[in-house]
Structures are given as structure tokens and as C-alpha cells.
Amino acid sequence: MIKVGIVGATGYTGVELLRLLVNHPQVTIECITSRGEAGRAVSDLFPNLRGHLDQLFCQPEVQPLANCDVVFFATPHCVAMELVPELIKQGTKVIDLSADFRLRNATEWEHWYNMPHTCPELLSEAVYGLPEVNRDAIKTAQLIAVPGCYPTATQLGFIPLLEQGLIDPSHLIADAKSGVSGAGRKAAIGTLLTESSENMKAYAVAGHRHLPEISQGLSDVSGSPVGLTFVPHLTPMIRGIHATLYGTLTQEINLQTLFEQRYADEPFVDILPAGSHPETRTVAGTNVCRIAVHQPQQNNTVVVLSAIDNLVKGASGQAIQNMNINFGLPESMGLNTIAVMP
Amino acid sequence: MIKVGIVGATGYTGVELLRLLVNHPQVTIECITSRGEAGRAVSDLFPNLRGHLDQLFCQPEVQPLANCDVVFFATPHCVAMELVPELIKQGTKVIDLSADFRLRNATEWEHWYNMPHTCPELLSEAVYGLPEVNRDAIKTAQLIAVPGCYPTATQLGFIPLLEQGLIDPSHLIADAKSGVSGAGRKAAIGTLLTESSENMKAYAVAGHRHLPEISQGLSDVSGSPVGLTFVPHLTPMIRGIHATLYGTLTQEINLQTLFEQRYADEPFVDILPAGSHPETRTVAGTNVCRIAVHQPQQNNTVVVLSAIDNLVKGASGQAIQNMNINFGLPESMGLNTIAVMP
Amino acid sequence: MIKVGIVGATGYTGVELLRLLVNHPQVTIECITSRGEAGRAVSDLFPNLRGHLDQLFCQPEVQPLANCDVVFFATPHCVAMELVPELIKQGTKVIDLSADFRLRNATEWEHWYNMPHTCPELLSEAVYGLPEVNRDAIKTAQLIAVPGCYPTATQLGFIPLLEQGLIDPSHLIADAKSGVSGAGRKAAIGTLLTESSENMKAYAVAGHRHLPEISQGLSDVSGSPVGLTFVPHLTPMIRGIHATLYGTLTQEINLQTLFEQRYADEPFVDILPAGSHPETRTVAGTNVCRIAVHQPQQNNTVVVLSAIDNLVKGASGQAIQNMNINFGLPESMGLNTIAVMP
Amino acid sequence: MIKVGIVGATGYTGVELLRLLVNHPQVTIECITSRGEAGRAVSDLFPNLRGHLDQLFCQPEVQPLANCDVVFFATPHCVAMELVPELIKQGTKVIDLSADFRLRNATEWEHWYNMPHTCPELLSEAVYGLPEVNRDAIKTAQLIAVPGCYPTATQLGFIPLLEQGLIDPSHLIADAKSGVSGAGRKAAIGTLLTESSENMKAYAVAGHRHLPEISQGLSDVSGSPVGLTFVPHLTPMIRGIHATLYGTLTQEINLQTLFEQRYADEPFVDILPAGSHPETRTVAGTNVCRIAVHQPQQNNTVVVLSAIDNLVKGASGQAIQNMNINFGLPESMGLNTIAVMP
């Protein structure tokens, strides 16, 4: 059994880790930390866990965490980088769901997050945990940076095209729509039901923190720097990301076959039949990314539709997928839930 | 392995049966019928099942169904009663999620459903499948009538009080709020998102078909006919029933203890701590009924709050719970999912 | 033209006052105060007002407010009572949308609001601004306490029955469902879209601050103290209250006629035809209260369904209705908007 | 007073016309037709109109319509073209909210609508009712084709750029998100609350009927045929369209100034300050189009955000704006409502 610790389990990625790990057959949850809720029953804060989990939140202290086999960080950015170096030193594995280790370039990180990175030396050691690209590196990593939600949906949609050099890498457009849970579990006016239901808006068009992460990943698979316009939108639903991706084809290709072959062996990427439109509700609560590819009017613009659950394949589920790979378990273990419809 | 057939699997209780049975370790799904969709892949209609279920809808014919160990009817009322007699004759077990066998009195059934009942002789044979009341009878039944959604939430809330004669049975009020999925998967204007979101309304105040079912059940536990006012409301959400129940106490009692003791051994009734308020989202997708009991200002009105998922404990989950009991399996088998929050 | 000041216009009742007053033909808005937003354009915070209102928020100082003909307080409780005495002294009229002057009994107010009332001497002077009951007193009042949202929907539904002594006043039940805007425009986790959509729950069953206000009002019309059980529910929509009211009839009466006659001359109470169910969306954005009355199965329980927009008839619209009455204007002036459907 | 007839008033654009026309100071509504609801009170079907409108639905017969000064068609496509020729012949003005007269090319119309056009000779006579482009022609038109919802939001966003030749017309992308009311008031499974809330999806990527309309309009202002990729999405809200538009700049320009100057005199186009993001809720129920223009990272991709209410500026409000222009009234008459927020 893998001994697991979770830091910052009062947020949405935290409770989602708990929902999935409670039923994972190879895991025991050793400690669930929260500075603010220490001493409180976890199932008191999250009543969906009543009857499934009996533990209390505990203080985030190094030693009990270091005694785990693996520690998940489900924290806002800038928390993990304070604790991770000591855990790494003690040989504990770390799977970080925050943004602290996603960018390889410390200067770029500091530009976007507007503060010094406290352990830049670990940036090169961290493996970017997108299994569909980095599975081999994930197997042996001690520190895994789980991709963000927008980056997961966007990269999985563009990868088959960029790997093969089929679209102009200098002019990519990602128009992404996210449910409100992407903003996290924190008191704020903008994400009240009263403010965000019956409404649609773009935000952060001038520059969202996921932009450099997506650009880094797409540049890697493209082999040269990409030019990306990324426009996120806040959508009146709890969960889900729908990324609508646009690229300019530079040659003719059977797009359907391309996508099906690229992901034929991937357990969590589902290419829909030609002409389909993925719906976020069909992946809610699951680790699946559903993708459809279109070439409207047969002109040279390819349209990729990519749908995930931002809290599962875009966060906690992908984190567990990384854990499974890293510990040599079947990659889908504990991740076979079916979306609830309707 | 139990061989299962499902009649009418294109509705919401049908797809919910499939979601739950696909992962049930003691079940094989033999046939999934639909007159309108025969020949189509089930996962084409319900993409959440892609990768989990490979079957096609087939025509609803007697023999393949009769060859099953148990057949679930997830049909509108008046469909089951046409097919059930032949299945019963051939020794097949039947678990009917519709209303056809819930009322013992054929005259009353015909009054509320406004047509002749075609097999009234089976009404007395059918067992009303509320395990918290009828577990023993369920064990040996060949024909089980699964309670409706409102009746489940309402009865579980009133039972501890009525069994002990603690409230005036002649003056019960059930103010129930249901998500829109209770109206089923059928084209209709009133349940369009445009008509039913951002809105709250009562409906069928003059008389809802669940009224006689609830009255029958409560009269049974009370030992005398009850007087019930039942007001259902359409609530702008997909799933969930929240029943708010009012009774007039006839004596002093520790309500919290009463409820905790009554349901101490029930796997799917969760009495919340004193002072709590159950939320429907904490039971969404699960077979749990969460209940809290209050006595505001210590006056003689008791308020019971009872929350279920109308499609699980209020339909398909309870149907499987009945199957588990009837086939001698652990009662919770296949029903241990955790609600997705948020 | 009536010179109007608004204190605390950054909340939902504040912006709603602005929306309605901007088009009121007899009003000029003199000052719109906000401690936190002073100096900012109002339409920057509330872009729906772009092109309709050019003013800035200003500091809440006494003198500019005292120079107005009337000052609306759209503040949380305990703010108005600090400023009102000075305004009253200077002869300014005050219409308070908060709870500070709704209860006549200072001790009871202090019990429910858990702090000393700073001007209890004004409590007896304040007129409770429910026009359907207190129209004459409103005409001459200097200080008007606008009823709360739940109290408005509940009292308008019970009044015809209690005035005529037709129901048992000792056993009233108000099961009320409110949209999330009732919680106000403040950062909080519980009212995030992620927490409050796709969910239904009761809250404050042990005792809600609107309980003593409703009891006071109903006892007034009943002529004796009432016994009320009041259960509020949080409903996944932005606006609207649907109160479902239950009483025990003590004599036979034509309920439809009773209600139609009671409100025949009321511009903002609309009794629906027999058998109807009011929907909150039909009153959204308007000052109308729609009511239907039922006697299910002709038993002795009367069911009244009462729907309002909590921010209009339940707050800002009713405040303007009071202003119109108090200043001798046509009661409906500025309040004739039609609900947007769908 | 202008005598108005409305054909097909049982749909969403119909009730929206009624909501706006009831308060229009220069209009009397002469007949409101519905084949299915003839004889029923309009306010019975649409209770938001109770107290505002006393008429009954009547049969759609030519003569009473021809006696009106202007007839609005709020019908599905292919209805108007049957009645319009006779009305035109009799000198009645027609404002058609359907698609029947939007395309000038009959062959293209027949391709997209898959049936013969019954009065192609009127296509050249019809004026495309986008006031921001065709105001002068609208003044003298007898037959006005009101633009569709997507076409309005999209054209208003692209026009300033294409008129000045500032973007590559061969590579335009319109990623549009619509509320569910765009699907109309008709019984359908796909737009049930249960199917379309908590969900996001693209649809009709292969080709939506608004594509040729948008292309025609943009080609007109561009002066040459445009290449447009148009991807509509179904968004879980009732009202609103948010179009996110992408173009490739061919020269440097002050985009903010360009947009502000282009629409400086337009009463219903509101250019937001630089860096803003329009929200659909701020235009709900109003005839305003709110636009913001961005150039992220100063690369050569311009991003235009354009928000309207699909049923107002995208349909009924724009129809009335056309009527006002055509009849020489102030363009904003009856259209000055403020969006309800929250």
C-alpha cells in the first residue's frame, strides 16, 4: 500500500483527491493537512465523504509528510515550493498540483507569478506530468508537476497536429471555456452564483498564467517556439473545460485518422467519431479527455474540440494517473468512474 | 453472476441503472431494450458510457427478457403491466421502477392513472421495495415495486415519528423540492432550461400521483390512515429531492436519538448531527438519504429535512439495493460511490 | 423633483434602487455613498448602468444626505441606526431597507441581532412599510422600515386568512425558498456558484432573523400572537422568493374570492386564477407579488403560494412604492417594468 | 400611433417583442397571431404580461395583418415567405425576424435551408436591418430582414476592422457562445435543463445556417469575399451571446480609438474601456452590444469580445430599432431598459 499525504486538502482539488483516493485499492491516506481546519473532521467540511473517510485535518508539518511515500500538494501557488525541497531531500516523492514547478525557466515563472522562486534548482528536476507526452520520465520522477486544467485540454488537442508539423505553429488560437470551480474554493464576489450564473465573459485576455505553460508544452512538441493566443472564459457551470482550438493547416491530412492513431493506446483520451461534438458533462467526475476534430467547409482551418473535467483530468485525476505510473500500478487504477448523466 | 435485463433504458432511470450496473461485480447485463433506439449503440446515446459498455439497444421481446434472472423496468407507467405477467409466469424476477405495482388498491390506481390496470391480481403479490420497512419481504419477492422519488424521501423522514405514534397522523405536511430530472427524459417545453432555470414553482398542488403512494406507506407504518398535504416544487437543478416535512408532536421525545436509533443499522440512511441541514449535492449520484430533525423554538412542530438523489435512492439505486437484498448479496454492493463535490 | 440619497449602494438592494430610480420621472439622485468605493464611477462597478448614470460613489457624510428629501439605506443591519437619528432631527425622510427599525420591541431586536440598539426611541416612530397593511401610516411617516423579503412574501399570503380569523393562528407554517441574491453581494464560500448551484438545502431552521418580523406582522393582523414555524431554503437561482404557506382552516370559505377581494385594489398583488401556480420568473425584476390559493383534496389545510422578487417587492421596489405613497405620487410610478421571459 | 401586427407570437422572439412594444409610446398592438393558441389570452401563456396586455391570440389571417402599418414575423424560417408577398402588395411594411429574407442569393438560401424559396424576387428588395451599417436603406425600406443573433454580435465586432482593411479577410474566426433561448421555445430533449445545464459544447461546426449570413455581411463591408470559420457553442444560461472574434492584423493601429470612433454615434453599441471584458448579463434584456478589443502580448492577433442579448439586439429589440428608424421615430424609443443585475 502506498502511504499518501495531502497538503491543502480544503480546496477543490484536495477534496477531489480524497474522493478518488478513498476508493483507490493501493492507497492509504496518512495525513490530510490544513492550517485553518486542523482538528476538524474532514467529512464535516465535505459531507460527501461521510461514511467513507474518518480522518481529521492535521497541521502541515514536515515529518509526518516526509514519512509518506508520496505527498500531493493541492495548494495555491507558492506553498509547495516552501515545503518541497525538504521532502525531496528526505526521499519522499512529490506530486504538485500547483503551478510551482511547471515552468522550467525560473525567470519566466517569476515574471508571471510576480515573486522570487525559492527553489529554482528543482525546476529542471521536476517532470511535467502530462502522461500522453512524458510517460517514461514520469515513471522515474521524484518530483512531478501536474499540468494545469487549461494546459491539459489545450495541449492534448494540439499535440497530434504540432508533433507532425501539420499546422502553422506561429498562429495558434485556444478559445477555452471553464466552469467556475477553476477559480477554487475561496470567498470572492466574482464567482458568487449571483455574479457568475446566467452570464458569460472572457477574462485575463491580456495574459493568463496558463499561457506560458501551454506555450512551453506546445513548443516542446513542435520543436520550435509557438505563437499562441489564449482566451479563457468563465462559463456558468461548476465543472468542465471546453477548449476550442484553431490552427492553420499547412498540408492535407486525414485528421480523424491522425487523432485516432496518436491516442490509440491512451487510456484517458477518447477521440470521438468524425462529426461529433464532445460535451463536458460526459467527462464530469472522470479522468477522460474527449476530443473531436473538424475541418469546416474543408478550408485550411482545423478546429479541435477538447473537453475535460478541470478538477479530474485537469488536476486531481491526472495527479493520481501520475502516481499510478510512477509506482508501477495499472494506469487507470481508481480512475474508472463513469460520469453521472444527466 | 446475475443476468440482468433492462426495459426502457433510454430514460434517466435507465441510464442510471446502466451507470451503476456496469460496475456491479455480480451482474452481467444481458439485454437493454428500447423500441425507438433498437440497433443503436447505447454509448452513442449516452456518451458517458463510452469505454464502459459496448452493447446495442434491442427490441423489447419477451423471451430474451424471460431468460434473464431479473428484469428492471425503467419505463413510464403502464408499460410494465403489459409485460410483467408473462415474465412472472416464466419465473423471472421483476423489479419495476415505474408506478404500476406500487398501490395495492387497483381502484385507487385506476383513479390516479386514469386507465384500467391490466393485471390487478399482481398488485397484492408485489412487494413495495422500501428496504428500511420491507427488507424481509423483499428477500423473497418475485415482483418488487420500487418506491417513487418523493415517496422515498418523504417516508424515510416520517417513519420514525409515525411508527412510534409521536405525531398527529391526521395533519402531515410534506413540502418537497425536486430537480428537473424527475420529469424524465422527454421533449417538453416546461422543462427546457429556458423555462425551468432561474425559476421556482409549485405544481400539482391539487393532487400529485405520488400522494396516494405516500399515504399508503405512511398509513401502513402509522397503523391508521394518515392525512397528508403534499406540495411538490420544481427546482432549478438537475438532480435531487429535498423534502421538508412538518408534523405536530403529541409528546416530548429526544428526536435526535429517535432518528439515530431507528436507522442505526441502515446502510443508506445517514442521520446528520443535531442542528444540521442536509444538502442534495452531498447525495448526488449516491444511494444515500441524509436526514436532519429539528424542533424550532421547542414548539410542538417537528421539522424533518430529508435529501436524496431522485434518480438513485429515489429510483435506480434503490432498485439495485432491492436486487442485492433479493439475491442475497451484500446490500451495498455496487452502490458505494461518493458524491462529486463541488 | 424629489432629491434622493442612497447609503450603501454597492450591495444588491443598492444597485436595484439605482436601476429603478434612474428611470423614475420624479426623482433626481443626489448622492450615492460607499465608504469603500468612494470616487469610483457607479457604472464602473455596475456596468448595466453605463449610459444611464454618470455619478461617482461618494463618502457617506451627514450633510449632503440631510440635504436630500429622502435617504434610502441599502446597508447591512446596524448601519442605518447610526446615521438615522441625525437625519430625522434635520427633517430628512428616511426609508430604511435594513432590519434596524422593523421590530417595535428593542429587547427582541437586541436578542436577534445580538447587539444594543443605538436609537430604540425611534422604533415606535418608524412605520413598517408594507403598503397593503399600513398605507395610511406610510403617507405621513418620516421614518419607514421596509419589510424584509421573506416577511413580504409570507405576510401577503397569510393576511387575508388571518384578518378574517379563518385559520388557526397558533399553527402556521411558512416553507420559503429564496434565490441566492438574498445573501447579498459579499464574498463568501457558501454562496459561490460552485457551492450553491445544483443544490437545495434548508438553513437557519433553528431561528432566522426574519422570524420575529413575520410573527410581529402576522400577530398584528391576527389580533393575537401567532405560532409560526418558518423554514427558509437556499435555491439555486439568482432572484426570487417562493413562499409555500400552510394553515389549518377553522371554517369553510371561498378562498379564491377571499383573496381576490382582499387585494382587488392593490396595484402590486396579483391573485392568479384558481388552480394556478405562480412562478418566480414571472415577477423577476418587478414589484409584483403573485399569489395562488389552494385547498388540496378539500381537506382543512389551506396552501398559499406566494412569489416575489426578493430584491424588488422584497426590498428596493417596495422601498420606492413607499416613497411614492409618502410623497403623494402615483403608487406605481417608476415600477411598471415587465419581467423578462424567458 | 403605429398599428402593429405580430405573427408567431408564441415563441421567444414573439414574447420579447410584446414585452418591448407594450411600453412603446408610439405603438398600438393590433393583432397577435398564433395558429395553435388562437383564442387564448396572451397573458395566460406568458404570465409576465398579466396586467400589461389584455389581448387574445388570433388566427394568422391576411387582412387584419394587412391593415396594420407594420407586421413583425417572429416565426420559424419558411413561414414569413408565404405571407409576406401579399402584405407587400397591399403596401404593409414587414419586419421579418426570421431568416427568410436575410440572404440576397436565393440559391445559397435554398442550399442552407434545404427547400425552394417561394418569393426569391423579394430578396433583392429586402433591406438587411443592421442599423450600424444600413441605416439609410432602413429608413425607406418596405421589407426589412432583421439580422440573426450570431450575425449581429459577430458583424458588429468585425466591422471596424474590415471596413478599414486592417485584418486579413481570408482568415477570420468567430467563436460564439449562446444561451439556450437561441434554440427557441419548442419541445426538444437537447435543450432540457437536464441536458443543457452544467454542460458546455460546440455544435454545428460543420456548418451553421448563420454562416452564410455572416459571410455575406462581412464580405459587404470588406469589399471582397471573406474566409470565416464560425463555431457556435451552447452555453448553460438562458440569454446572451458572447462572440470571441479573432483576426490577423495587417498593420499597426490604435484599436481602442478605431472602435470608439466607429461607434461614437451609435446608440446601441458601447465600446468598453481598454482592458475590459464585456459580460452578457450586463446587456440582458437590453438592446445594447458591448464590445472590448484586445491585442494580447501585442502580437498580430486582434481579439474582439462582443456581447449581446440574443433575443433583444439579436432579434426583437433590433427589430424595433428598425421600426423606429423606418417610421422616423427616435431610434431608442421604447428600448431604454436597464439590465437587471444581479
Molecular structure report:
4 copies of one chain form a homotetramer. By secondary structure, chain A is an alpha/beta fold. The first copy, chain A, has 2 domains: 2-125, NAD(P)-binding Rossmann-like Domain (Rossmann fold, 3-Layer(aba) Sandwich); 149-310, Dihydrodipicolinate Reductase, domain 2 (2-Layer Sandwich). Chain A is 30% helix and 20% strand. The first copy, chain A, has 11 helices and 13 strands. The first copy, chain A, has helices at residues 12-22, 42-45, 62-66, 80-89, 106-113, 131-140, 149-163, 193-196, 210-222, 255-262, 312-326, and strands at 2-7, 27-33, 70-73, 93-96, 127-128, 143-145, 172-178, 201-202, 228-234, 241-248, 269-271, 289-294, 301-308. Chain A has a 7-stranded mixed β-sheet with strand order 8-9-7-10-13-12-11. The model of chain A has no long low-confidence stretch (mean pLDDT 97).
Counting helices, strands and paired strands, the structural category of chain A is alpha/beta
Order of helices and strands of chain A: EHEHHEHEHEHEHEHEHEEHEEEH
List low-confidence stretches of chain A: none
Q: How is the biggest beta sheet of chain A arranged?
A: 7 strands, mixed
Tally of discrete structural domains of chain A: 2
Largest interchain contact: A-D, 49 and 50 residues
Oligomerization status of the protein chains: homotetramer
Give me the number of helical elements of chain A: 11
At the third CATH level, what is the topology name of the largest domain in chain A?
A: Dihydrodipicolinate Reductase, domain 2
- CATH architecture label of the largest domain in chain A: 2-Layer Sandwich
Question: What is the strand arrangement across the widest sheet of chain A?
Answer: 8-9-7-10-13-12-11
Any idea of the CATH class of the largest domain in chain A?
Alpha Beta
CATH homology superfamily name of the largest domain in chain A: Dihydrodipicolinate Reductase, domain 2
Q: Globular, elongated, flat, extended or rod-shaped: what is the shape of chain A?
A: globular
End-to-end Cα distance of chain A: 35 Å
Proportion of β residues of chain A?
15-25%
Rg calc of chain A: 19 Å
Mean pLDDT over all positions of chain A: 97
The total of beta strands of chain A comes to 13
Helix % of chain A is 25-40%
